[in-house]
Amino acid sequence: MANTVKTVDSLKSMTIILDGKTVEEVAVSNPCQMWRTVDSYFEKHGNEARIMVMRQDGTLFKVWTRKQLKDGTWIKTNSVKETNRGYQLSLKKKAAEAAAKVAEA
Fold first, then answer.
1. Contact 65/50 with Cβ under 8 angstroms?
2. In the chain, N or C: fewer CB atoms in 10 Å?
3. How is residue 104 annotated by DSSP?
4. What is the pLDDT of residues 35-86, one digit of tens each?
5. Is the pTM for the entire model greater than 0.90?
6. Backbone phi, then psi, for 51, in 5-degree steps?
7. Residue 57 phi, psi (nearest 5)
């Protein structure tokens, strides 16, 4: 059986910001809805847009921006460290390495 991740985050809204001004605000209720629509808003407003996703309690969930790679393709990047999966994995790896060093000593 594959590992599944169940999300308990209930979201409030996505705010699309372009040139420092709020262009559009869209209600979203869950991460699945966010994932399905975030690319379409980048297509609609351009790669320079910034999309901020807020939780129901008013805290920041994700901040999406786009970055161009050397081959010309664009990718989304999340600048909120607490919800960035790669950042979380790097923290776990560093903690495991530190624990291994302590165990060796």
1. yes
2. N
3. H
4. 889 999 999 999 899 999 998 888 888 899 999 999 999 888 887 766 667 7
5. no
6. -115, 120
7. -80, 5
